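Q: Could you fold this chain for me?
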Amino acid sequence: MGQKKYVRRFSLILLAFVALLSAYLFMHSTIFDVTQIRVSGNEKVTQEEILALSGLTPGMNLFSLDEKLAGKSIEVHPMIKQAQIKRHLPNQVSINVVERQVWAVIPFKDLFLCIDDSGVCFDKLNTVPVGNELIITLEMVPEYVNLGQTVNSRATQMIRAVWQAIPSDEQAFISDIHYQDQDKTVKIYTLQGTEVRFGNLERLDEKVKMFSEVLGMEKEMSEKGIDELEYVDLRFKGEPVVKTKG
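A: Sure. Below is the predicted structure, expressed as C-alpha cells.
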C-alpha cells in the first residue's frame, strides 16, 4: 500500500511538472511574440520617443513585459503625466499616455515656466503662450528649475484651490495671482489693476462671493467714471476693507 501511495504521489507530481512545463513553453512560444505596439493619447511627444522610453520592441514575448515598469519609464518624460500599458492577446501591446496640459504660467528670469495642474514644470518658453492660461507670480522660486520638477507645491496647491472656487466667467477678469511666502497668503490682481488681498483658504466660499462683488464694484465705478479701486482686503471677517485710488 505504501509503495502504491508513493507511485501515485510521484505520478501527480510528474503530471503537475509536465503541465507547468507545457504552460511555460506555450507562453514562451512564438505565438506570443509581440508584432504590434500601438501608441495613443500623444500629441506633442512622438511615438518614437515613447517607444524608446518604454523599452518595448516587436519580437519580445508578450508575457515577459513589465507593464508598471514600462509605464514608469515613459513617465520620466516631463511632458507625460501618465502612461498605461496593456497586453492584448495573442501578440499586441497598447500604450496610452496622458500629456501634461498648461494650467498656469510662471514668469522666471527671462523665461516663462509652463506648469500643469499639479505644479509640475514641463516646458519653458521665451514668450507668454497665447491663450487664457493663468499667470502666477511667486516670491520664492528655485534658482534653477528643471523640466519635470514641481514648482513650490504649497503655493500652486493654494492658488489652484482658489482658482477652482472662482466661477469660470469671473476667471476671465483675473490678470494674475500672487503668492506671498512670508505669510502664505494669496493676492489676486484684476485686469483693471485692483489688488484683492484674498488671504489663505479660510472662509473660501465667503471670499469668493466677495470677489464677485469686487468685480461688480469695478464695473459700476467704471461706468460712472468715478475713482478706481486700489485694493480690497478680504482677509478678515466682517466687511472688507476698500481703498480707492482717488
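A (continued): The chain has a mean pLDDT of 89.
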